Amino acid sequence: MAGLLTRGIWGGRNQEIRTAVRRRARREAAPGMRVERMEQGMGSALSNREWVTTIRPLDTEEDWQGVRARVEELERGSALNPWWNWEYIHEQWRTFQPDRRTWMVDVADAQGEGRAALGIGLWREYVFKGRRLCPKALRSFDHIYFMRTPPFLARRGREAMVCEAMADAMGELGRRSKACLMSLNRMDGGAVSPLLAELSRRRIAFKQRLWTPAPQLVFEAPATEGASVEEQFDKRHKKALRDVRRQERRLEERYGEAAEMFHFVGKDLADEEYQACVARFRKIESKTWQHHWEDQSCRVDPELKRAFEDRALAMWRRRGLLEFYFLRAGGKCAAFFVTLRVEDRLWLLLTGYDPDLKD
Asked: Which of 318, 308, 286, 302 is nearest to 147 (CA)?
């Protein structure tokens, strides 16, 4: 792949490696692939007998709106992921990176009528700064720390084909964007390992950040309406639950009454009730050390971040995924969980507690 390294960019002899790989890549062509130049603004396409891959930039609001229907149609035929959907990624781009170019890789069925989308990948241009080398990378949308996304959206049953098509497209995408590696952060799902294998086989460099275990509760069976979080936690995490029980006894001794957990499902709340839940957890959050760090940090625009979170929570509420948990102790709301319930997982997005409970 022209412009891509074959080793991690932080290793030695980077310039020599880069030069050698560029020369070799120019002599090599992806077997069985045909590159077609399309009209200006429409990008380029790669095709073989099974699929046609189109690469196009998304620079403006008009560009993003132009692909919305196609992405959302594919969402309905793909495995559910709360972060990989047009609405969430578009909001992230519009809020934080409107001046940064995004590339869309669209894998379509070459044999079916209308060339239905089989897979779509979105990559934003990113420049690593503050190091001896400042290379440009194609990076996943991984702004929010708690997200776990697949590397691309793929129609159910066609993941392997889409993985191969995406890897084939990286050569042309690297030439057009002048990026020198792929930066894959916070990736999850069954397509990650096959994609990395395909990239390695094609000598395409990538930088992967291994994600830490996310705060989540995995149910033994797909989550159902009214499923008890406490029962599921008890079955899987009995040792951790002992500490929970100990802390509950401490709260009861301190306040003279047992602590209570209140659960609210976002889709079932009236607008006034929903806004009350948001105000309740924001009030507790404003007392946490994370909130104070954000307010004082030059790396975070706290108002922009919280406004984005509010819009994301409203989206998840419309999709029926959002839930709230509040702990009441000592006659007041003392702690909260903001969660997403997705099939057999309960993702803990935002957590916080009143510092008065620390001791």
From this structure: 308
Strand (E) or helix (H) holding 302: helix 302-318
3-state helix, strand, coil in the chain (%, to 5): 40, 25, 35
pLDDT at 23 over 60: no
The answer to whether 297 touches 303, Cβ cutoff 8 Å, is no
Distance between CA 79 and CA 150 in Å, rounded? 10
DSSP per-residue letters across 241-297: HHHHHHHHHHHHHHHSS--EEEEEEGGGS-HHHHHHHHHHHHHHHTTSHHHHHHHH-
**Contacting residues for 106 by C-beta, under 8 A, at least 6 apart:** 53, 54, 55, 56, 67, 70, 117, 119, 120
Question: For the CA atoms of the chain, what is the radius of gyration?
Answer: 23
Asked whether 346 and 216 are in contact (CB, 8 A), the reply is yes
Pairing of strands 181-185, 136-139: parallel
- For the record, the structure tokens of 289 come out as 């050390």
Q: Do residues 90 and 102 make contact, with C-beta atoms less than 8 angstroms apart?
A: no
- Which residue spans within 92-189 are E strands per DSSP? 102-109, 117-127, 136-139, 153-154, 181-185
Q: For residues 121 and 323, what is the distance between their CA atoms, to the nearest angstrom?
A: 29
Its pTM stands at 0.78
- Measured CA distances, 106 to 34, 74, 119, 164, 246 (Å): 15, 11, 6, 13, 53
Residue 174 CA, chain-centre distance (Å), reads 22
**Residue where the block lists tokens 């952060």:** 185
110-168: per-residue pLDDT in tens?
877 778 999 999 999 988 776 566 678 888 887 655 567 788 899 999 988 999 999 99
Would you call 96 exposed, middle or buried from its count of C-beta atoms within 10 A (0-12, 13-18, 19+)? middle
Say what the alpha-carbon torsion angle 89, 90, 94, 95 is, to the nearest 10 degrees. -40
Which residue has 């390992």 as its token pair?
A: 193
Residue 114, sorted as left (phi over 0), alpha (psi -120 to 50) or beta, turns out to be: left
Nearest CA to 169 out of 144, 145, 202, 146 is that of 202
